[in-house]
């Protein structure tokens, strides 16, 4: 039995699947990840600070002009569309097999593909809020409300509009984290894809899994490979699409 057939069988046997995904899920939608050879951290950087500094809360507070210049240049992919992995997961949810998608991505592509119960550990670029009055703005609104320095400002009080994304030095949303723990601890199959499982606290979520099948789909080795029932080193989109659309 090959890997795709094994995954099909696991899906057939499962009643409550949870998918936990990282940046590798979106690379097939041409959104770069962070740590791979071609990732954001390894790209030639035209900015005077490393990306992990520019994406920190302290940098956002002290250098908003430079933060938003980098953010809109490198973190926003307006033309990105869902890939086969996103659509396969949405189909599994519609069929009643998949109970939740837990994602470290901030691009909103799971919802665009049709997934409903999506737990966004790191927030979303699609949601933005005034730091003073709390007014909500969509991404397109924010792009139109940038001042002469490129900083988006609230049309009500001219305060900075902050993306609803978790920056370095900020904690994860505890409600979302609690929901993710609940879903993982109650599922019978956990499929993990496109994540190195080395970044905490997200990677620590796997310790709550008590189900029957752990499946890892990732290009590189992870610390959990020896605990998995099935490890697949192939395209996430192709793997999930073939396994779900059999």
From TrEMBL:
Principal place of residence: cytoplasm
Localization: Cytoplasm
Reaction(s) the record says it catalyses: N(6)-acetyl-L-lysyl-[protein] + NAD(+) + H2O = 2''-O-acetyl-ADP-D-ribose + nicotinamide + L-lysyl-[protein]
CDD domains in the cross-refs: SIR2-fam
Keywords: Cytoplasm, Glycosyltransferase, NAD, Transferase
EC number(s) on file: 2.3.1.286
Database matches in HAMAP family: Sirtuin_ClassU
Official protein name in the record: NAD-dependent protein deacetylase
Gene that this polypeptide is encoded by: cobB
